Amino acid sequence: MKTNSLTRRSIGSILIVALTLMGVQAPAMADIVSTDQLVAEQRADAQRATVAGFLAREDVRAQLEARGVNAEDAMQRVDSLTDTELAELSQQIDTLPAGEGAIGLVIGILVIFMLLDIAGVTDIFPAI
Amino acid sequence: MQSRIFRVFAGIIAVLWLSGCVSTPQSREVIGEYKHPSPGSTALTSRVLLDSVPFFPQEAYQCGPAALATVLQAAQVSVTPDALVSQVYVPARQGSLQIEMLAAARRHDRIAHTLPPDLESVLAQVQAGKPVLVMQNLGLSWYPQWHYAVVVGYDLAQEELTLRSGLVRDYRVRLPVFERTWQRAGHWAVVLLAPGELPEDGREDAYVNSVNDFAQSAADTELASAYEAGLRRWPQSRLLGMALANLNYAQGDLKAARTLYLHVTQVAPDYAAAHNNLAQTLLDLGEYEAARTHARLAVGLGGSFSATYEKTLDAIEKRIGER
Fold it and tell me: CA–CA separation, B282 vs B269, rounded Å?
């Protein structure tokens, strides 16, 4: 019985020491910006640039304006997209066919509408 | 009557011609570049075949484990498709998920690097001796039939790719046909890199991305050699510099971290995160005045992590006040 309480007490002290040590260790984990954070930031920046570059294209501007949308407005709304929306959109743009063929045109229009949808200008693709 | 049939027929031909020509711009570009190289561009070798890449004829639906074992063995990892089944095969879906394929590659100490969505990058990797794991949709977009295969060769004169695919060791497919099936699977292409090897696509940030995903399962030495290789190739990359410096910092090598953070602040003087991490390292090293200088720079520059920068500056001011 006696040994039992002794064991318990020593376990208790070990725990206290361990917890104290952990407590001491924690503040030493300093406030550096982690690689995870930096990679995520860089990715979002690159995607924003992709979308902005797309919106700056002459043909895209013409398409937007033909539909009564101000390209500057659309550009401003890119800033309010979430990271997930940005990723989705920039991937669509990245995989657009390079040529100016009929299919490229169709997909281009689709992407524009997706962008407007996300930005709240239209409501054609409620799933996005 | 006959003229109507003829018109319908002509219509079908026109549609086929349009879809054949318009929807595979990448093949057209690669083949066009081969036939009429534009000045100053680095041309691809006309024909490559990586014949030593192993082949595992797949059992039903198990193209995932077979294709993954193919690229892993080519990357000097001895593993069989059977050993990979439990890691990547999802019986309910009768297939493997892309994300599981990448995770399984990392579990075998290889960096899984996703290539940009262009055919030229795939061919450039093959030319550099690396087989490329690809996903295809052999069905239609509304009736998909997913398939994994490995690109092991190409022939620009014949306009063909060679794949390890299904039950065929050297499956030769026309470039535009491949492009269409690959396009329907989101242009998914992956190479496996041993720590220290670099991809051919020249995108340093994407490389850091891949290595950072690898970091969860990798040993520190492997991680360090991956970042060091990247820095030798791209010494001006601020992201690579930060990644390696953060690793040094986490390992407790504060002096190495300080040197590298300092280097990044010189390459990119307006990169707030580098000033912040340098300030923290200087604080840990007891160089308070220099720490304060860089912490103030970080706070002044601001950005996504400005709360962290202010915390760092506070900690430094507090320490200086205590002296």
Answer: 17
Q: Out of A30, A34, A43, whose CB is closest to B209?
A: A43
Separation of alpha carbons B213 and A73, rounded Å = 36
Domain ranges of chain A: 1-30, 35-119
CA-to-CA distance for B197 and A57, rounded, in angstroms?
Answer: 37
Query: Tens of pLDDT along chain B (323 residues)?
Result: 455 655 655 555 554 444 444 478 889 889 888 888 887 777 788 999 999 999 999 876 788 899 999 999 999 999 999 889 888 887 777 778 888 899 999 999 999 999 998 899 999 999 999 999 999 988 887 788 889 999 999 999 999 999 999 899 999 999 999 999 998 888 999 999 999 999 998 888 899 999 999 998 888 999 999 999 999 999 999 999 999 999 999 999 999 999 999 999 999 999 999 999 999 999 999 999 999 999 999 999 999 899 999 999 999 999 999 87
The rounded distance, in Å, linking the Cα atoms of B288 and B296 is: 12
CA–CA separation, B85 and B229 (whole Å): 32
Delineate the domains of chain B, giving CATH numbers in brackets. 47-193 (3.90.70.10), 235-322 (1.25.40.10)
B96: β partners: B89
**B319 touching chain A per CB within 8 A:** no
A97 and B23 within 8 Å at the Cβ level: the answer is yes
